[in-house]
Amino acid sequence: MQTTAVHINHRPFLKKINIYLLIILFLMVACFFTWSENVLITRAIKVVGRMGVLFSSYLVYRKIIQYGAVDSLKWNNLLSMLLYVAYLLLGFASFMWSTNVGYSALQWFMTSQTLVFCFFFIKSLYLLDEYFEDHQIRLYNLLGNTCYVLILIFVVGMWVDPDTFFRMTHGGEEARLGGYMMNPNELGMLAGLGVAGLLFDLKRNHAKWWTILKLIVLFYGLYATGSRSSLIGALLIIGYHVKQSSNQKLKIVIIAGMLLVTPVAVWKVILKDGDTSRLEEVMSMTGRLPFWTALINEGLPREPMLGFGFMRIDYKEYFQSAHTYPGKMTHNTFMQVLMNLGFVGITIVIFQMLFTFKGIAGENEEKKLMLRSLLIPLFINSFTEFGIFGESNYGILFYQLVIIYISFKQNTILTPLNKIHLKKRRPDLLIS
Fold first, then answer.
1. Which residues cross the membrane (predicted)?
2. 3-state secondary structure at position 409
3. Domain ranges across the chain
């Protein structure tokens, strides 16, 4: 697409779109939180609210087209998307043998709902890339700011209303940020994703000191969650950025900061001040290893091929072995797939991830670095919590954004109707 001598200032429009995209992404992620102990209010937010945000993402997509763009995008890395759809189709088919059809259907609907949201959200970014060459709207900035605002709410809340924003664990001995609103480990993952996004703003020197302040808030929030896995994820993200950076001065500053912070963080968060009982807890991954062993030895042989149904891990509401705690979910997203969709489901998921990694490897360097950085906290969380294939959570949302972000490419071939639309709406473009 070429630009003519006609100059049109698109900045006011792009500024509005940036705000719209940030708001709808923030609201979508916020809808995964339990903002009220009232079940009806929570369900209204999680179902009705998310439908409203989904519709808003479509409206923003249409607004960009009406302003002056055409959706002529071509599919790319098709196997990654097709296998994800196959996973959802198998989940839908599993309603026929699910041990709780209503629960499976609800989980499937919410997962599919976020996929549609991501579809229009990412398409909007692609249209901006194709028809507004100098725009500054970036996915990593939107993700980073969304995570920052949500973590800021919790950081302020922990001082203003600690009874609501803290969750007492280990018999009331340890207070962890999250409260009843969000699992501390999930909240820690959100902080890690925010770090992954805002490090790119730091790299491009975008509002440098303001970005550093945001990163400090995110790290403070992550520390307050007491999440070991999220801390490890954040440190790996920083290490990955340092390895990829060509800015020697930035490398020195980041490495020096990590040398100062890491020992204290590891001692306080991972080793819990060297408490012997807590060290034993770390070795068993807080009881997860015995639980996973029982699932494989006792649960899986009952329904090995197709599982117990979408997001179901037993015939009853909870799986419980004689030697483990009762669990409604597996605390491992891959184990979750194995239990709810069997060996057929886990095979689809493994190949889906392989083609996703392959698709990311074929992208440009900035996009490749960004997507890999986002996957680090997502995959670490997936080994210990809900993860990218677990019960509906914002980890699934972020993984779907990654899948769809590698699923399109620009198409230079326009139809006659496309050309008429652009000539009418965008006189600054030379349409041949």
1. 17-35, 41-61, 81-99, 105-128, 140-160, 180-200, 212-240, 252-271, 333-357, 396-417
2. strand
3. 140-275
Q: Is the pLDDT of residue 170 over 70?
A: no
- Yes or no: say if 20 and 12 are a contact pair by the CB < 8 Å rule: no
Q: Which helix (H) or strand (E) covers residue 75, if one does?
A: strand 74-75
* Tokens linked to 23: 């708001």
Residue among 129, 102, 68 at smallest CA distance from 364: 129
* Interacting residues of 273 by C-beta distance below 8 A, sequence separation 6+: 267
Cα angle 31, 88, 82 (rounded to 5 degrees) comes to: 115
pLDDT of the residue at 151: 96
DSSP string, 256-321: HHHHHHHHHHIIIIISGGG-HHHHHHHHTTTTHHHHHHHIIIIIGGGSTTT-SSTT--SSSSSB--
The pair of structure tokens assigned to 206 is 């975008």
For residue 166, report the phi and psi dihedrals to the nearest 5 degrees. Answer: -110, 145
On the CB side of 146, CA atoms within 13 Å amount to 27
Task: List beta partners, residue 148.
Answer: none
Q: Which of 30-39, 59-68, 310-319, 340-349 has the lowest mean pLDDT?
A: 30-39
What local confidence, expressed as pLDDT, does residue 17 receive?
Answer: 97
What residues contact 29, with CB distance under 8 A and at least 6 apart? Answer: 146, 147, 150, 190, 394, 397
Q: For the chain, give percent helix, strand, coil, nearest 5.
A: 70, 5, 25
Q: Which of 158-162, 169-173, 202-206, 317-321 has the lowest mean pLDDT?
A: 169-173
- 364 to each of 17, 144, 244, 341, 359, how far by Cα in Å? 24, 20, 14, 35, 11
- What are the tens digits of pLDDT across the range 363-407? 988 899 999 999 999 999 999 888 999 998 999 999 999 999 999
H/E stretch holding 250 reads helix 248-265
Residue 338 pLDDT > 90: yes
Predicted structure pTM score: 0.92
Q: Is a pLDDT exceeding 60 seen at residue 277?
A: no
Rounded Cα–Cα distance for residues 160 and 165 (Å)? 9
